[in-house]
């Protein structure tokens, strides 16, 4: 994941990696087959419309849409272009589609079935900010948001820190699945498991005070899985709530992120973890990854915005330059996504 200093053995290793990296960059004409439930049906009348011609701006002037608007926005696109989308059972070139191209670009960065895998992913501004306090801050464009949901689809568990749970009241589900993914993936009842890192078990008081919790509503309305709150063994208390389980972790393991995820995966049906944030969790992971390369994939969406000094910042506590290797960039309409793997 990170480039090591080029000395002695490391230098050879790095040169080898550079060579491998060059190979990765060799332009290839990829044949893109979209998994689709109608895939085997004979092609319907070929439509020559280029998806790059879709005028996204007519749906909204502001690329910074809220999650809810994103869904509406997407529905509009799909409704308008349904006749085209239903023809996706042909082989297509990646120039032809905007959202599809994003999803396909991350194919080589996805977890392999049944492998233990850790993905760290988040969306940031140009000034490395990931949101305002207590205000769910849309950063990603519709395409990159879609890509994130596609990523979610390929993981068993989605992880956030307690502050993100409190400040964003997130859904952490596959809400775009029904809207879009049906067009790209075989139908499945796949649900991702929300995991909240809550060492001190603050959830105990929170549920007494707050009733409108999206994770709870989603579970009760069958729109999401039962959440797992992960706490320190020394802080464990029983909670009798249908929508959540509490997993206690030995105190000496808890803050070692690699060991923590291994511990969870040995006790829950979760092999692949997608960690979305917030800043403390991201910083901590990046810092620990420098010594123990446990992050398999790092995917950062960079949006063409500044959020300013009041926003929450990602900046690991390191005192040296840290580079990524095995890097690919994917350019969207407004955002750019950087992908890196071990
Ligand atoms: N743009 C994006 O992609 C995302 C943005 N966010 C934003 O991040 C902000 C929250 O970030 P933070 O305040 O930094 O909180 P956070 O979400 O990182 O949670 C921090 C809390 O997690 C717990 N924790 C458990 N293990 C930990 C560990 N190893 N290291 C650090 N904390 C650990 C502690 O209770 C700690 O107080 C919110 O404003 C949210 O909107 C969150 C996720 C993604
Ligand atoms: N990929 C991405 N782009 C943004 O613009 C974001 N604000 C976030 N935030 C993360 O997504 C969570 C919200 O998830 P739901 O849409 O409610 O399922 C939020 O809590 C952050 O983790 N991510």
Structural account:
- This is 2,5-diamino-6-ribosylamino-4(3H)-pyrimidinone 5'-phosphate reductase.
- Belongs to the HTP reductase family.
- GO terms for molecular function: 5-amino-6-(5-phosphoribosylamino)uracil reductase activity.
- This protein is an alpha/beta fold and 342 residues long.
- It has one domain: Dihydrofolate Reductase, subunit A (3-Layer(aba) Sandwich), CATH 3.40.430.
- Helix content is 34%, strand content 17%.
- The protein is built from 11 helices and 11 strands.
- Helix 2 packs parallel to helix 6 and helix 4 packs across helix 6.
- It is globular, with a radius of gyration of 21 Å.
- The relative contact order is 0.18.
CATH fourth-tier homologous superfamily: Dihydrofolate Reductase, subunit A
Distance between the termini: 4 Å
Order of helices and strands: HHHEEHEHHEHHEEHHEHEEEE
Individual helix count? 11
Gyration radius (Cα, Å) is 21 Å
Instruction: Report helical residue fraction.
Output: 25-40%
In round numbers, the mean pLDDT is 76
The outline comes out as: globular
Strand content: 15-25%
> Reading side by side through the largest sheet, how are the strands ordered?
6-5-4-3-7-1-8-11-10
Highest-level CATH class: Alpha Beta
Short description:
The protein has eleven helices and eleven strands. The strands form two sheets. It has a nine-stranded mixed sheet, sandwiched between helices. Strands 2-9 form a two-stranded antiparallel sheet.
């Amino acid at each position: 994941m990170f480039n090591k200093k080029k000395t002695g053995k490391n230098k050879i290793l790095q040169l080898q990696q550079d060579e491998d990296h060059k190979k990765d960059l060799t332009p290839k004409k990829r044949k893109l087959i979209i998994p689709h439930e109608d895939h085997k049906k004979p092609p319907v009348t070929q439509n020559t419309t280029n998806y790059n011609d879709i005028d996204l701006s007519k749906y909204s002037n502001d690329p910074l849409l809220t999650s809810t608007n994103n869904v509406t926005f997407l529905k509009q696109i799909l409704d308008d272009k349904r006749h085209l989308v239903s023809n996706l059972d042909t082989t297509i070139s990646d120039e032809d589609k905007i959202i599809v191209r994003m999803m396909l670009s991350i194919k080589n960065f996805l977890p392999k079935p049944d492998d233990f895998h850790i993905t760290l992913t988040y969306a940031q501004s140009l000034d490395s900010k990931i949101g305002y306090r207590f205000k769910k801050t849309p950063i990603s464009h519709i395409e990159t948001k879609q890509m994130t949901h596609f990523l979610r689809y390929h993981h068993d568990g989605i992880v956030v820190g307690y502050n993100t749970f409190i400040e964003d009241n997130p859904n952490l589900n596959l809400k775009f699945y029904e809207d879009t993914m049906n067009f790209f993936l075989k139908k499945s009842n796949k649900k991702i498991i929300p995991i909240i890192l809550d060492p001190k078990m603050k959830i105990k008081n929170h549920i007494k005070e707050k009733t409108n919790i999206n994770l709870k509503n989603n579970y009760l309305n069958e729109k999401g899985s039962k959440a797992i709150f992960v706490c320190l063994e020394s802080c464990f208390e029983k909670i009798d709530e249908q929508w959540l389980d509490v997993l206690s972790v030995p105190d000496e393991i808890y803050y070692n992120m690699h060991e923590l995820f291994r511990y969870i995966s040995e006790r829950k049906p979760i092999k692949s973890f997608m960690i979305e944030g917030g800043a403390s969790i991201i910083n901590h992971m990046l810092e620990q990854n420098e010594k123990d390369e446990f992050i398999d994939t790092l995917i950062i969406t960079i949006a063409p915005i500044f959020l300013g000094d009041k926003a929450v910042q990602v900046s690991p506590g390191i005192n040296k330059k840290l580079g990524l290797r095995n890097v690919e960039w994917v350019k969207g309409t407004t955002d750019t996504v950087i992908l890196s793997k071990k």
